[in-house]
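dumping this here before i forget
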Amino acid sequence: MNTPTTAPSQTRPVARFDARGPLSARLLSALSHSPDVAAASLRDFPSDIAEAIASAPSVMTDDDLQLTLFILYGLHYGGVVDADDRWEWNPNTIAARVTIETAFERELRAAVALPELPVPDAGAVAQALFDLTSDDGGPSLSKFVAAKASREQLVELVVQRSVYTLKEADPHSWAIPRLGGRAKVALVEIQADEYGGGRPERMHATIFARMMRAMGLDDTYGSYVDNVPALTIASFTMMSMFGLNRRLRGAITGHLAAFEMTSSIPSGLYARGLRRLGFGDDVTRYYDEHVEADAVHEQIAARDLAGGLAESEPQLLADIMFGAAACLLMDGLVGQHIFSEWSEGRSSLRLPLENADV
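structure:
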């Protein structure tokens, strides 16, 4: 790995989490300065990332690569790292992001079993998505939560979900200007509900934050990034990659369709598990809200969003189904990790929680 000769020393923390290796440490160090001062320290960063990718068994599960990608996406979202806004479009950070994205997408496409493609008709696409998402081939984390999970395990689950859910809907909203017609209208309809229908206190991310506070957790974004494994981060970086790249608009559309179509029933089971352990409505409201909302959203997402996009841009059909299958793959891997760790009497977290009121 090339070491920059003019690397500036870090002057202030820029994140609520720590580096997980040399790449993320180098990036966080650079971001603690302005691009005017530190851009040169990242000049060779993309080539160093390429070296790390070549030696990593998996981009998806590599702590340093996934955290680095998470930070690079955080420059677009805001609220992830406290850095000069000019870093967002710095050529070195963009080149670094694309280098990891290229390898991550290649790995995902190799891992995803693409289903047989339907004809590019809204009804046929919707049916294909319902068929794909109805295939339940493994242990059910939501059923375990409903019947057996401990209070500590449910707190862990909320921590795992916080990486995405405190920014709920944002990764998919990148797709709005990339779509048109029926698909755009459908996406806006879904996202309007996700953002509270004009009422800030009803935003799903806000409701989730209230649930965290009621469980004794810190709802500040990034507070628990240190605690979660690379797979959990990868589930968020994957949808960010789909949403931020216009060429992957089919994939983010399919991802959202599968995401909505696999949410309603598990949400009811999560709420049941929380009530079983004595949590009140202030905690269960988030999942209660999704039982009803996502039962409606799944129909819109399958037929009007994914199906509408397939009809207007049939060349995107394969990516629509890829995005849906990738959503199921990643959610399955994260769920399997949590379930297997709990089954062995271990925590599903990378680092234990501190100061959580459980």
